[in-house]
Amino acid sequence: MTRQPPVPPRGARSQRTRSSSQLRGWLRHHRAMGADSARRLLRQPLGSLLTMLAIAIALVLPAALWLMLDSARLLDAELDDSATLTAYLEPRVAEGEAGRIAEAVAAQSGVAGTRLITAAEGMAEFQQALGLSDALARLDGNPLPASIVVTPDDPAPAAVRQLARSLEALAGVAEVRLDLAWLERLRHLAELGRRVALALGVLFGLGVLLVVGNTIRLAVESRRQEIEVVMLIGATHAFVRRPFLYSGAWYGLGGGLLAWALLALGNQWLATPVRALAASYGASFTLPQLGLPGSATLLICSTLLGWLGAWIAVGRHLAGIRPR
Length: 324
Fold this sequence. Notes:
- This protein is an alpha+beta fold.
- It folds into 2 domains: 30-78 and 184-318, no CATH class; 84-154, Alpha-Beta Plaits, CATH 3.30.70.3040.
- The protein has 10 helices and 4 strands; from the N terminus they run ααβαβααβαβαααα.
- The protein has helices spanning 10-43, 45-81, 95-106, 119-130, 133-137, 157-168, 181-222, 224-232, 237-280, 291-318, and strands spanning 85-89, 111-117, 147-152, 173-177.
- The protein has a 4-stranded antiparallel β-sheet with strand order 2-3-1-4.
- α2 (45-81) runs antiparallel to α7.
- The two termini are 68 Å apart.
């Protein structure tokens, strides 16, 4: 004889049914309010487009600055990879002894690689760089010493300075040259740029809140009588607030899409001259793009800013509306 599962009480079943019905009604109302707010924006295309364009302009500047800083970070990483220091050997060091010193330098801790440049190779490179081969050929001897180009494991300034001190202690090494001041200045400028971008992002985010808040305030005032009627029959503030929140979210999403389009057009417009400028210096460089994560972040932030601006505006004005 099989045992029948216990039947839940009638009250519990009715409670679950009511909860499920309330959830479905809540979702239906959200869908209806989202569609209705979108239709209201489409009925006024010019005004809606101008509001979204103002939001887009407020978002483009900090986003573009952040992209520039991203390219600076890529350049900083390339400079870290190419960070080197040069150990100049004493003039009396012969070529064979210079090879042994180069092996000793390569055996030092913190050295990733070395390249020995003999005095003859150094003179040839010097002549090629200056184009003064005829004048330099008249010299009685080669005044340039042999040198060793050292690539450090750690490109951090403190580690490179420590490596330079250890190399200067080696026999046969006359001087170790490193120029980290410009690299440190570049990093300081990048940090300053990041803080400026953050400050501009906050300021222009407040600008988005003001734009959306002012637009929603006008929408609330235009529907004041309708709000008073629905509040008179028992509508809650959440019920009244919902369509305006969707309107703010639509404004923010539209502004984010316009900002994304402006950034893409600006990237395409500047890509050719930037590539030409980099090629003139013998380098290859392309402007960074938002990509999928950056685009999603831009759209999410713009939508949330629109929603928050609508929440603040509606909350302030609903507090002053009383059904008569």
